[in-house]
Design a protein that fits this description.
It comes from Halalkalicoccus jeotgali (strain DSM 18796 / CECT 7217 / JCM 14584 / KCTC 4019 / B3). The chain is α/β, with parallel strands linked by helices. The protein has two domains: 152 residues, Periplasmic binding protein-like II (D-Maltodextrin-Binding Protein, domain 2); 137 residues, 3-Layer(aba) Sandwich (D-Maltodextrin-Binding Protein, domain 2). Helix 1 links the parallel strand 1 and strand 2. It starts with 28 loop residues before the first strand and ends in a 13-residue tail after the last helix.
C-alpha cells in the first residue's frame, strides 16, 4: 500500500459547544483533533490550526488534543473520543489490511487533509560507520523507540540492508547521550516536510559529531519497489549542522494526513476546511509547520490509496479546483 505518502493554544471561552454527533444533521459543536504528545511539533501545529479556526468562526469549535500516537488516534475515532485525528501511511495500510488492533472497526475511515511529510534517515556518531552496508550483528540500532508509529516500517526497511543487528530502543532526546556512552551505534533523524530540523535533532548535532549514513543503491531500489514503503531523498545541505551528510540523503518517508469517521457531520467538516483555507496565508504565524498549507495543492498531497475522502472534503476540494479524478469520494 503506497501513498501517492512555537504553538498557540486555541481560544477557549467560558462555555464550549456541544460535541458534534455522528449523524448528518448540521450542528454546532466541537471538533476534537488529536495528533501526538505535548512536546511535538505536530501538537503545537495543531494548536495553531485550532486557534486559526476558532478566531474566525463561531459555528464550530476546534480543540487540539494530545495523544500517545497513531494507533491510539484510530482507537479514539472508534470510541468517539475524537472527531479528527492524524495518522501516517503505514497505519493507513494496516487499517485497510485489517491488521490487529484495527480488524474490528465499526466505521469507514475518510481522509480530510494532508498535514506534513516526515522523512526518517539513519545516522551515527561513529566515524567507522559510513553506510547501512556496514551494519553487523552486534551493531546497536534504534529505528525510533519501540511502540512508535514509525518503528515497524523502519524495522522493515532495515531488513533490506542487514541480516541481523541488535535492536535497542532510545527516545529521540536520549540518542546523543547513548551514542556518547557507546550504547547506541545508529539512531535516526528527520526533517519536517524535508526542510525543518526539529529541536531535538539540533541538540543532538550540538552534542555529538553526527554523521548521516549513506544507503547502498540496491537497498534504495528495494525500498522503492516495496509497496508499503515511501523512499524519498532530499539534499544533504538541509541538515547543515551535521558533521557529514551525503549530497543526497535517502530516507523512509511518512505521509501524515488527518482522517475522520465517514459519518462525521458534513457541515462541520466543510466549515472547518473553508475557514482554515480562507486564513491559510496567516497560518505560518501560528507555527512554521503550517506554512506549507499556504499552497493549496499541499492540502491533497500524498493521499492514501484506497481510502476515500470525506464527502465534505471532496466537495470542498472540487470547488477550489484541486480535486483529482484519481481520488475517491466517500459516503457519509
Amino acid at each position: 500500500m503506497g501513498v501517492g505518502a512555537v504553538g498557540l493554544a486555541g481560544c477557549i471561552g467560558d462555555s464550549e459547544p456541544e460535541q458534534i454527533d455522528d449523524g448528518n444533521e448540521s450542528s454546532e459543536g466541537t471538533l476534537r483533533m488529536r495528533t501526538a504528545t505535548s512536546t511535538t511539533a505536530a501538537y503545537a501545529g495543531n494548536q495553531g490550526i485550532a486557534a486559526a479556526v476558532n478566531e474566525n468562526t463561531d459555528t464550530i469549535f476546534v480543540e487540539a488534543q494530545t495523544s500517545p500516537g497513531t494507533e491510539a488516534n484510530i482507537g479514539a475515532l472508534q470510541s468517539g473520543e475524537a472527531e479528527m485525528v492524524y495518522i501516517q501511511n503505514w497505519s493507513a495500510a494496516d487499517v485497510l489490511e485489517g491488521v490487529e488492533p484495527f480488524n474490528n472497526l465499526d466505521f469507514t475511515m475518510n481522509q480530510v487533509f494532508h498535514y506534513y511529510d516526515l522523512p526518517w534517515f539513519f545516522c551515527t556518531a561513529d566515524e567507522g560507520l559510513e553506510s547501512l552496508a556496514n551494519i553487523e550483528s552486534d551493531t546497536t540500532i534504534s529505528p525510533t523507540p519501540r511502540g512508535s508509529g514509525t518503528a515497524s516500517a523502519l524495522e522493515h526497511a532495515l531488513e533490506y540492508a542487514a541480516e541481523d543487528y541488535e535492536r535497542v530502543s532510545q527516545t529521540y532526546g536520549e540518542q546523543a547521550s547513548a551514542m556518547n556512552e557507546d550504547r547506541l551505534d545508529i539512531g535516526v533523524g528527520t526533517a519536517l516536510n524535508f526542510e525543518i530540523i526539529p529541536g531535538w535533532l539540533q541538540e543532538m548535532m550540538g552534542t555529538v559529531d553526527l554523521r548521516i549514513l549513506e544507503v547502498p543503491n540496491d537497498v534504495v531500489e528495494a525500498w522503492e519497489n516495496d509497496d508499503r514503503l515511501i523512499a524519498e531523498s532530499f539534499p544533504g545541505s538541509v541538515v547543515e549542522n551535521a558533521a557529514f551528510a551525503p549530497e543526497e540523503v535517502w530516507s523512509i518517508a511518512f505521509s501524515y494526513n488527518f482522517v475522520s469517521r465517514n459519518d462525521l457531520d458534513y457541515d462541520a467538516v466543510y466549515e472547518f476546511l473553508n475557514v482554515l483555507y480562507e486564513n491559510r496565508d496567516g497560518l505560518a504565524e501560528y507555527h512554521a509547520l503550517l506554512s506549507q498549507l499556504e499552497d493549496e495543492s499541499f492540502w491533497v498531497r500524498s493521499p492514501y490509496e484506497n481510502i476515500p475522502f470525506h464527502p465534505a472534503a471532496a466537495d470542498f476540494y472540487e470547488e477550489i479546483g484541486i480535486w483529482s479524478e484519481e481520488f475517491e469520494r466517500g459516503e457519509g
